[in-house]
Structures
1.
Amino acid sequence: MADNKVGFQSIDEYIATFPEPIQALLQALRATIKDAAPDAQEIISYQMPAFAQKGNLVYFSAGKNHIGFYPAPSAIKAFADELSVYKGAKGSVQFQFNEPLPLELIGRMVQFRVAENLKKAEAKVKKKKSD
């Protein structure tokens, strides 16, 4: 893996810094996120690939032995039972390179985050109108 992972302009640029097998995992994850959030915009945030729709949805990155997926603490909590087999923290989960990515689960988590962001955005609009 490349050591100079700074200043990325695109997700393609980020993914290109990894060996082919890791690139394939990252591209599968990216495609799953795109399918689950077709209106989301690809961005680089905190030097990581991310998707945004009415605010940040999810981030992902590749570590030494795993892919880190960052769907926000609310999604980690909502899917806690299914995520219990993975290492993680309050707002993140780690998928080991030597295990298949749980793409269906990831897709549902992304959809959860889209719904959450849209609900928050709608509430802000309603609040503005009532002010």
2.
Amino acid sequence: MRKEDKLKNIEQISALVKEYNHFYLVDLTAMDAEATSKFRRACFKADIKLMVVKNTMLKNALDGFDVDYSPLYNALKGATAVMFCNTANVPAKVIKKEANEGIPGLKAAYAEEGCYVGAEHLSTLAAIKSKNEVIAEIISLLQSPAKNVISALTNGGSTIHGLLEAIGEKKA
């Protein structure tokens, strides 16, 4: 490969790392053509960009960032495909759903500003909540006490009103 082509590929990988917040490194080598095609379709449906890369080009692209991606470098052996996405847990869920006897294999991941190396982190990655999910939970938790107070005041108001009516009727 010519040097110009290598530089172009490195720039393309760098652009994808900038564009997407999270990426997973996976090994697809043990998959046949049919399984690979099915996995690519699943990635497309989940809004994941799947790209097969050369390890040295990926390493060179990651070296150009201020973020420390060095924990991922040990996973850059053999054939590597990169799954780029904007929601941290989606690729892990796709891998879990499509995996058959550990294939495709998770090598490493960069999700929620953390590095995860090894397939044993797949369940952890699938359980990570997205930013929007966390915000929704916080809003729900903040609204709950206010809803309880309003409900208590509404029910309490009718109770007090009923009590006053009963007392008024007793005197009459």
3.
Amino acid sequence: MIIGLLAGCDHPNRSINNGPKLTQVVNNYSHDGMIHLSGGSFQMGTDDPDFPDAKPAHSVVVKDFWIDKHEVTNAQFRQFVDATHYLTIAEQQPNPADFPGVDPAMIVPGSAVFTPPDHQVSLDNPMQWWKYIPAASWQHPLGPGSTIKGRENYPVVQVCYEDALAYAKWAGKRLPTEAEWEFAARSGKPGAIYYWGNELHPNRKIMANNFQGHFPDHDLGTDGFKGVAPVMSFPANAFGLYDMEGNVWEWCNDFYRPDYYSHSPQADPTGPADSFDPDDPKSVVRVQRGGSFICSEQYCMRYKAGSRGKGEVKSASNNLGFRCVADSH
């Protein structure tokens, strides 16, 4: 295998050194499909003992900003690729020099796909439900034979941080800071256990696309979906934003450090100057937020308010996407 694992997240890590291919074409920036948020103060993070890297909960102030109403879709990413001829990391040929000791025949373009077993397994080894699938990419999220045809309104997946950043620059936008993302997700609900409130299923209503059933082998699909759902399939939050929890993880611009909250500035924090992940100290790691369709009460639970994810900047998977923000002018 040419992938490793970021412990504490629910998707794997593919470290390669080749960079994105991008023709420098910039789209005309528009606020269409975005929500304008008036800035303010909120309590960021959580003191929940299940999430030690999100401690301590602390006061943060953010400025006004615009944010995409929903995750970037396959149709939107297609416009970007058609305009720029961009080639995502997953579509590029990895450099064999980055994988010493690995059979060169195994070093091929591809990405990570959630491939659950058909039986119960221990939850201490995520490689039991993740596989590196050759030719898996944003256009073929599950590998050869899969397609995004008819799924134009689904969030684009199999995009690494560098891919998301390239799209954001083309769109005249940027990736959100972690503080902006959480401010938007909390939507004025301080102290809530979940971004929508204190009950997982208020009045028996499913509020987000996550995993129901016995993880990872038996997804009941009680929420109507086994895997990714189309954007806006679940209720919007009080700010009018969709899927700020569950469905797919979302890239933020901040470097990841587990101790950052203990000394981050109060006003508009943009993350530490560099990254450090004790589980993967040699990699460059950025923050991810919101959890995904793989998160459940048995595993991950990072759709809970204030919790954090992380990912190596060239790694992608079929439960990982993004949305963009823009400064308020």
